[in-house]
Design brief:
By secondary structure, this protein is α/β, with parallel strands linked by helices. The chain is 34% helix and 22% strand. The strands form five sheets. Strands 8, 9, 10, 11, 12, 13, 14, 15 and 18 form a nine-stranded mixed β-sheet that branches. A four-stranded antiparallel β-sheet has the order 5-4-1-19.
C-alpha cells in the first residue's frame, strides 16, 4: 500500500452559538478535508479524513493568533500526508504509523498538535482499507484485516518497555447516548437568553430545551477554575435536572486544563460534596476530565490529592494524551484512564481501550475510557468518530458539533439529498438543512455501523478550497 497523491481542502463554517472552552471562544471554525489516493494491491482507492480546526485546543499558546493556529493545524496535516507519500510502500497500519512518527513537524509546537496531523493521515488509510475490502470499520477491525496479530512496543516514563495490542472486538451498538456539552458560555435556561440573542432556528438553544426536547440524560459540564461562578452554575444545572424529572443521569466534569494543581481542583469537589442538596448530582459524576494544565499534569508535585479523589470519582487525561505511552504514564501516576477522540489517533484510542479493559480485569481499582468530541460535524469527521466509539462498545459519547453548528450548513446544498438518503437514521431536516437527529437522548447508528469508515454519502471535495497538495 502506498500514497499516490493527496490534497487538503477547507470550507468555512460558523457556529450558531459561541463555544467557550478554556480561554477560547469559538465562533468561526474552518472544516478541513484530506483527500488521499492510494495504490492497494494494484488498485486505486480513495480515502478521506476530516475535522474542524479549533484554535487553542491542540495548542493552548494564546500568543499565537487565530490565523497562526489555523496555519499550524493545516501544516501538520500536510507534513503527515507528504511523509507517507515520500515513504513509499508500507505493509500495514503500524508500518504507516512508524513512518508518520518521524515526520518533520515543527518541534516548537506541542506533540498533541503533531498527533492531530498523524491522525488525519491514519484515518485516510483506514477509510481506504474499508473501501478496498468493501466492509465497514467494525468488520475491518474484528476480522483482523486492520491489525491482525500486530502489536506496538512503547517505552513508559519509568523506562520500562511495554507491548500494547489494539482492541479488535466488535461491540458496536445500534444506538449511543449523547453526552451533551454544557460549555462555560452556554445558556442554561431559555428565559436567561436576551431576546436579541434568541436564535429560533428550530433547534434547542438552552440546556433546559435540550433536556426537554432531546431527552438528554448525560452531560459534560465545563468548569473554568472560577470559584463561586462554577459552583453556582453547577447548582443551577442540578436544579434543571431535578425539574426535568429525569430519574437517572450521568455527569462528567471537564476541567479543560484550567487548574495548576490537583489540590485546587479537589477544593471545588469538596465544596460541591459539602452541599447536601447536590448529593444526587455528585453521586452521578462518572469522571473528571483533565483538570490539570498539560505542562504539569504528569508532575507528581501537582497531583497531591489524586489518590483520594479517584477512590470516589475516576480522573482521566485528555489533552495530555499525545503519545502511545501517555495513558500508561497517566495510570502509573494515579489517573484512571483517558479519552477517545479520533483526532488524537484511531489506533491510539483502540490501544488504550484494550489497556483499560486489561487493567479492569486486575480488580485493582476502576479504570475508564470515555468518548469525547472536537466539535465534530458530518459527514466524515462525525461519522468516523461514531464508528470508532461504537465498535469499542461505549454507552455514551460527548457530542457537541450539532449544538454549536447549524447542522451541515457548511456543506453545499447539492450534497444534502445524498446525506439524507444514505444516513436517514442519523439526520433530519431542520430549517432546510440536514441536522443530527437526537431522540430519547440517543443517536441511531445503523448506517454508521454498516458504512465504510462510518459514512457512504461521499463528500464533494471539488467544493473545497485547496490549501495544500502533493506535487
Amino acid at each position: 500500500m502506498r500514497v499516490l497523491s493527496w490534497s487538503l481542502g477547507l470550507r468555512p463554517s460558523h457556529t450558531r452559538i459561541p463555544f467557550k472552552y478554556g480561554e477560547a471562544c469559538l465562533t468561526d471554525c474552518p472544516q478541513a478535508l484530506l483527500f488521499t489516493e492510494f495504490l492497494i494491491d494494484g488498485q486505486n482507492v480513495s480515502g478521506y479524513a476530516a475535522d474542524c480546526l479549533p484554535p487553542l485546543w491542540f495548542d493552548k499558546d494564546s500568543s499565537r493568533t487565530f490565523e497562526q493556529q489555523i496555519e499550524d493545524m493545516q501544516a501538520v496535516i500536510a507534513v503527515a500526508a507528504q511523509q507517507l507519500l515520500e515513504h513509499g510502500e508500507f505493509q500495514n497500519i503500524f508500518g504507516a504509523l512508524e513512518c508518520l512518527a518521524v515526520s518533520s513537524f515543527d518541534l516548537s509546537r506541542p506533540r498533541l498538535l503533531h498527533s492531530f496531523g498523524i491522525s488525519m493521515a491514519e484515518r485516510c488509510i483506514i477509510d481506504a482499507l474499508c473501501r478496498y475490502h468493501s466492509i465497514p470499520f467494525r468488520k475491518l477491525l474484528s476480522t483482523g484485516r486492520l491489525y491482525g496479530d500486530q502489536s506496538l512496543e512503547v517505552k513508559a516514563a519509568t523506562g520500562e518497555g511495554i507491548r500494547l495490542v489494539p482492541w479488535q472486538a466488535d461491540l458496536s451498538r445500534s444506538q449511543i447516548y449523547v453526552r451533551h456539552t454544557v460549555g462555560m458560555g452556554d445558556p442554561l435556561t431559555t428565559a436567561s437568553i436576551p431576546e436579541t440573542e434568541l436564535i429560533n432556528d428550530g433547534r434547542p438553544q438552552s440546556l433546559e430545551a435540550y433536556l426537554k426536547e432531546d431527552g438528554i440524560r448525560f452531560l459534560k459540564i465545563k468548569v473554568g477554575n472560577r470559584g463561586a461562578e462554577d459552583v453556582n452554575r453547577i447548582k443551577e444545572i442540578d436544579r434543571l435536572l431535578t425539574l426535568s424529572g429525569i430519574s437517572e443521569y450521568g455527569i462528567t466534569i471537564d476541567g479543560n486544563e484550567q487548574y495548576e494543581t490537583m489540590g485546587s481542583f479537589v477544593a471545588l469537589m469538596d465544596e460541591l460534596n459539602s452541599d447536601h442538596r447536590l448529593t444526587k448530582f455528585m453521586s452521578s459524576v462518572m469522571a473528571i476530565e483533565q483538570p490539570i494544565v498539560r505542562s504539569k499534569a504528569f508532575e507528581r508535585s501537582a497531583l497531591d490529592g489524586i489518590d483520594s479523589l479517584v477512590r470516589t470519582t475516576p480522573v482521566i487525561i485528555d489533552e495530555s494524551d499525545s503519545d502511545f505511552s501517555s495513558c500508561i504514564d497517566a495510570l502509573s501516576l494515579g489517573y484512571s484512564g483517558t479519552s477517545s477522540k479520533a483526532c488524537k489517533g484511531v489506533t491510539k484510542a483502540l490501544v488504550n481501550r484494550q489497556l483499560i479493559a486489561d487493567r479492569n480485569r486486575t480488580g485493582e481499582r476502576p479504570y475508564l475510557m470515555t468518548g469525547e468530541d472536537l466539535c465534530c460535524v458530518g459527514i466524515v469527521s462525525l461519522q468516523a468518530d461514531l464508528a470508532l466509539v461504537s465498535a469499542m462498545g461505549l454507552e455514551h459519547v460527548e457530542r457537541n458539533g450539532h449544538h454549536y453548528h447549524p447542522g451541515l450548513a457548511y456543506l453545499p446544498e447539492s450534497s444534502y439529498d445524498s446525506v439524507l438518503s444514505e444516513h436517514f437514521d442519523l439526520y433530519q431536516v431542520v430549517g432546510g438543512i440536514p441536522s443530527v437527529k437526537v431522540e430519547a437522548g440517543q443517536l441511531q447508528l445503523e448506517t454508521v455501523n454498516s458504512s465504510g469508515f462510518g459514512y457512504s454519502a461521499l463528500p464533494e471535495f471539488d467544493t473545497y478550497r485547496i490549501v495544500a497538495h502533493s506535487d
